[in-house]
Each structure stands twice: as C-alpha cells, then as structure tokens.
C-alpha cells in the first residue's frame, strides 16, 4: 500500500495537514534571527573563525529561505493563500533572487513525474552512485564559488536585460535587487557595510554546497528512481542538530514524507514520519543517520 491516506486515520490526517500561522511565523522569524545573529557575531568579534562561521550560517539560511519559498509556493506555510503569496514574493524569495511562480512550475512537475524518466530534476541525481573523486570535484566547484558564480552572472544578465523580461520574471528580479540593496543600506547604516560581502560569499560558495548535499540526499542513489512508490525513489535522512543548523533547515530532511503527502506543512513532517514508522509503513525503508553516512552511501570507491 502506497496511499498514505489509507494508512492514517481521519483524525491523524487532519492533524498532520493542519496549518499553523504561529508555527509558520516562527520559521520565518527564526531564519531571520539566525541571519542577524551571524552578522552580529562577525561584527562584534571579527576574526577568521567567526567570519567563517558567519558565512556558513548565512549560506545555510539562504537555503532556509529557499525551503520556505517552497512551502509558500505549495500554499502550506500559512493558512491564507493570499498571505502565502505575499510572504513568499516579498519576504522569502527576494533574499536569494527567487521567483516563486517559476520555481513552482518546475517543482510541481517534479512531484507529478517523480519515479519516471520524465522527472525534470532527474539530471541532478540520475548518475548516483558516483565515484568519490567525482563527488569531491562537484563539491569543490561549489565551495570554490564556480557554481555560485554562474548564478551571479545569470542575475547580472537579467538586470542588464531587465526590460526584455516578462512581467513575472522582471518583478521577481527587481524585488531581489531591492532587498539586497536594502540589506546593504542597513548594514552600512549600522557601520558594518563590509558584512554584506559575507552575504555574497555565502551565496556564491556555501548555498550551492548545502543545496547540492540536500538534493543528493533526497533522491541520489535511492533504491529505484524508476519506481512510482516514493519509498523507493525518495529518501528521508535522520540528521543531528549540527546538520539541521548547517545543511537541512526547517525539517527539510523529511523529503520522503513530503512526496508521500505533499499537503503536509513542513513543520508537521516529523510527526507524519513518526506515525508511519509506528504503523509499519516503513518496515523495509532505510534512513541514513546523517549526511556523512549518506555521502558514503551514494558514492563508490574511485
């Protein structure tokens, strides 16, 4: 049985699909608080260690904004569709120049076609398991800024040709520009304009790294990418608290649960996981205990 709605009782289904404005607001606020804390850490005690820690935290929180954009796009973050749309477009997507509508068009196709050769995201993980030397090269391209620099050049091209963009893309790009200029202005006003460089370095060198690790964790080297059962084509990982802070914010590691029941808000995926474990739904499913073991599982010597 792969239909989770037939496994859960009506009360359990109602509980895990219930939206909470309070919990949604906390996710958004906590993401911003960690951003502010990272900037404060580097400003108050500037040294190589605190600056490195700040950059790592900022890169992870940029991923956090992407995760919250995903939730708002699914209309799962807040109860109101209008609030999800406004928060997604104005408070969540702009920090990383995100475009909620464009992202969701591709993402919904991924949900619809996962487990088939038409999955639009398949190119990102089809080749796994891969030789460890190849994975090291991929991770080096991320952390050295080669991957992120392509994103920066794409943003720059968009700004140069902004008059040629369609209305949706133009609005998203200008909201991103507006947010980043405002962030720079705030930091300059506080007397620490140099901190904006940490935000840029995080975007170029850390966000691509943690995004790749997250993506590989979700679908890389799963039992069968061609099986329609999400238990075979998608993975959930059990991370420790450090990994939750730096690699998988906001319970995003519960990706199998998201594919099984996309109507569950991200802040309730852990509870859905617990229920399905108790009901024996995962009797033959393996959950890696963290991302380092996962990276070993999705690679082979070489």
Structural summary, described in words:
By secondary structure, this protein is mostly helical. The chain has one domain (4-300). It has helices at residues 10-17, 21-44, 48-73, 81-92, 100-113, 132-143, 146-160, 167-189, 195-219, 230-233, 241-246, 255-260, 269-278, 291-297; strands at residues 130-131, 299-300. Strands 1-2 form a two-stranded parallel ribbon. Helix 2 runs antiparallel to helix 3 (48-73). The protein is globular.
Brief description of this entry?
The protein has helices at 10-17, 21-44, 48-73, 81-92, 100-113, 132-143, 146-160, 167-189, 195-219, 230-233, 241-246, 255-260, 269-278, 291-297, and strands spanning 130-131, 299-300.
Radius of gyration computed on alpha carbons: 20 Å
Please work out how many helical segments DSSP would assign. 14
Report the major sheet. Answer: 2 strands, parallel
Q: Supply the number of structural domains.
A: 1
- Compute the separation of the termini in Å: 38 Å
Overall average residue pLDDT: 96
Question: Which keywords apply here?
Answer:
globular, 14 helices, 2 strands, 1% strand, mainly alpha, 302 residues, two-stranded parallel sheet, single chain
Secondary structure layout:
Blueprint (H helix, E strand, L loop, with lengths): L9 H8 L3 H24 L3 H26 L7 H12 L7 H14 L16 E2 H12 L2 H15 L6 H23 L5 H25 L10 H4 L7 H6 L8 H6 L8 H10 L12 H7 L1 E2 L2
Parallel strand pairs: 1-2
Helix pairs in contact: 2-3, 3-4, 3-5, 3-9, 7-9
């Amino acid at each position: 049985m792969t239909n989770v709605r037939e496994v859960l009782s009506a009360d359990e289904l109602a509980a895990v699909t219930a939206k909470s404005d309070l919990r949604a607001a906390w996710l958004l606020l906590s993401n911003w608080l960690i951003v502010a804390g990272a900037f404060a850490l580097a400003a108050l005690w500037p040294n190589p260690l605190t600056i490195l820690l700040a950059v790592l935290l900022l890169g992870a929180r940029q991923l956090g904004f992407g995760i919250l954009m995903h939730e708002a796009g699914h209309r799962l973050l807040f109860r109101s569709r209008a609030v999800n749309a406004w928060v997604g477009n104005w408070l969540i997507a702009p920090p990383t120049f995100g475009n909620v509508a464009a992202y969701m068009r591709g993402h919904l196709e991924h949900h619809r076609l996962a487990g088939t050769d038409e999955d639009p995201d398949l190119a990102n993980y089809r080749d796994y398991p891969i030789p460890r030397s190849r994975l090291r090269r991929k991770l080096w391209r991320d952390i050295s800024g080669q991957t992120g620099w392509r994103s920066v050049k794409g943003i720059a091209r968009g700004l140069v040709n902004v008059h040629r963009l369609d209305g949706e893309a133009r609005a998203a790009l200008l909201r991103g520009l507006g947010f980043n200029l405002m962030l720079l202005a705030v930091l300059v006003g506080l007397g620490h304009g140099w901190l904006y460089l940490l935000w840029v370095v995080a975007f170029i060198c850390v966000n691509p790294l943690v995004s790749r690790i997250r993506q590989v964790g979700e679908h890389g080297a799963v039992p069968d990418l061609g099986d329609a059962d999400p238990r075979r084509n998608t993975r959930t990982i059990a991370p420790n608290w450090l990994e939750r802070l730096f690699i998988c914010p906001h319970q995003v590691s519960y990706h199998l649960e998201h594919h099984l029941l996309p109507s569950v808000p991200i802040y309730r995926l852990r509870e859905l996981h617990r229920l399905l474990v108790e009901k024996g739904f995962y009797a033959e499913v393996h959950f890696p205990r963290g991302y380092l073991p996962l990276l070993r599982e999705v690679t082979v010597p070489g």
